[in-house]
Amino acid sequence: MSYPKKYNALKVSQPFGEFFAISIKAIDLLEVTFSDVLRYNEDGSLSGSQRLLDEKKRLKEISDYIDSQDLAFPNSIIIAANYNEEGFIVNDDEDKDIRWSFDEKSKGIYEITIPSSAKIAAIIDGQHRLKGFKDATLKRQMETDLIVAVYFDLPSPYQAYIFASINYNQKPVSKSLALEQFGYLTTLSPQNTWSPELLSVFLVRKLNTDKESSFFNHIKVAPQNDEYLLEINPKEQEWLVSTATVVEGILRLISINPKRDSNALNKLKESERLRSLLPKDNSVLRKFYLDNNDVFIYKVIVNYFNAVNEVLFVSSKDSSFIKKTVGIQALFNVLRIILTEKLEIDKNISFDYFKSFLEKIKDIDFSDNFFTASGIGKSRIQNVILIKLGYKKIDDIRKEEEKEDYERLTKFRP
Q1: In DSSP terms, which residues pair with 12 in a beta bridge?
Q2: How far apart (Å, rounded) are the C-alpha atoms in residues 363 and 139?
Q3: Which residue of 84, 116, 284, 317 has the fewest CB atoms within a 10 Å radius of its CB?
Q4: Quick one: how far is CA 188 from the chain centroid?
Q5: Are 266 and 177 in contact (CB under 8 A)?
Q6: Dmax over Cα atoms in the chain, in whole Å?
């Protein structure tokens, strides 16, 4: 199969969020998707996020039907693009060669690009239909088009929400199982049982509704795409950031492998499912997550970004990249570095403490053309900030042709 592959797409807008409808050959969809099977273990615990595949009977029936002359699958398969099997959103700078993208080609008509065969599209609904093609003939795989609804950059808890919404009233999925999936987004489960993914989504929703938070009314369920975000609120042209961007930023503060943590919790009996039983790792706020100190984690994020808002956002130009997705991503990375270097020493997470760091970078012009809205823009924003804060030197920059710009923007000389 040759890549990149491009598909015409229609954008579909709904209250929950937007997705794109495309037509794709079954063989191509099989190559780039994966599913984490939702199942009850022998001890009654829940694992995964998709229904158990009935290999012996149902899949055989589906495969036989696929190879028949009466094949018709008019309903869509739903997937979440740019989501890997470790539980992280695939970011532009880290995996720019595999990340799916979309562009508007004409009014209402978009083009989706799949750059490689990397399996970074999670199946939200329709895994039985798709799995059935694996045992069908190659000819039928290659000739059959499937309707696919593509959500971009959708965190795992929201994938589970869509799955539950679709299957709640359908016989194949029990009411109790659907309710457990809804538990990703509600307080039905005790807070001390929450996975890093669930806690991150909870905190993002709180950030977006808390009037004391600089993120208040600035977070939307949308792809990590600034131009796309501006379409959502064109009249006010306020800065907006995607849910995925903020969820990802928080996740990396509390886990190095969210999917591993989620699966480990789901293997435990419900009465024993405590996040405190998860192993320690190198994420900077892991200790506070394991200790159920969510108030501390929330305070860190609120105080830091409130300081960001006062020092950098309020006075910045509308064109400033610091208020775009790449800027928010870079600021979360900078927060991780500050906490890694200073938290144990200074034991301070106050607004004034974070402001004292940010005052050192307020003279940087983040609207400069050196910065871009792509993955390299995030790296450049992050590098400039770290140089100004003393965590990095211009000599550490690998690309010689960029050093002059770093000198100009930071007013430092190596």
Answers
A1: 19
A2: 62
A3: 317
A4: 23
A5: no
A6: 72
DSSP string, 50-105: BPPP-TTTHHHHHHHHHTSTT----SPEEEEESB-TTS-BPPTTTSTTT--EEEEE
Q: Among residues 170, 176, 84, 92, which one has the least CA distance to residue 121? A: 84
Cα–Cα distance, 374 to 326 (Å, whole number)? 7
Domain ranges of the chain: 1-187, 189-414
Which amino acid would we find at residue 273?
R
Q: Which two tokens stand for residue 109?
A: 């008509």
> Do residues 173 and 167 touch, judged by C-beta distance below 8 A?
yes
Q: Which long-range contacts (CB under 8 A, 24 or more apart) does 53-62 make?
A: 53/127, 53/128, 53/131, 54/128, 58/128, 59/128, 59/131, 59/132, 59/135, 60/135, 62/128, 62/129, 62/131, 62/132
Residue 219 DSSP code: E
If residue 400 lies in a helix (H) or strand (E), which one and from where to where?
Answer: helix 400-410
Alpha carbons 62 and 276: distance in angstroms, whole number: 43
> What global pTM score does this model have?
0.75
Helix locations, 273-399, DSSP H: 286-290, 294-308, 325-346, 351-358, 375-389
Residues with Cβ within 8 Å of 156's Cβ and at least 6 positions away in sequence, in order, are 49, 83, 87, 122, 184, 197, 258, 259, 262
Parallel, antiparallel or unpaired: strands 5-13 and 121-125: unpaired
- Report yes or no: 3 and 116 within 8 Å, Cβ to Cβ: yes
Write out the chain's pLDDT in tens, 414 residues. Answer: 589 999 999 999 888 888 999 999 999 999 999 986 543 333 333 444 444 445 566 777 777 788 777 788 888 999 999 988 887 888 766 667 899 999 999 888 899 999 999 999 999 888 888 888 888 888 888 999 999 999 999 888 788 778 777 765 444 444 444 434 444 444 457 889 888 988 998 899 899 999 999 999 999 887 888 877 777 665 555 788 988 899 999 999 999 999 899 888 878 887 888 999 999 999 999 999 999 999 999 999 999 999 999 999 987 777 789 999 999 999 999 999 999 999 999 999 999 999 999 999 999 999 999 998 777 889 999 999 999 999 999 988 888 888 899 999 998 765
DSSP annotation of 133: H
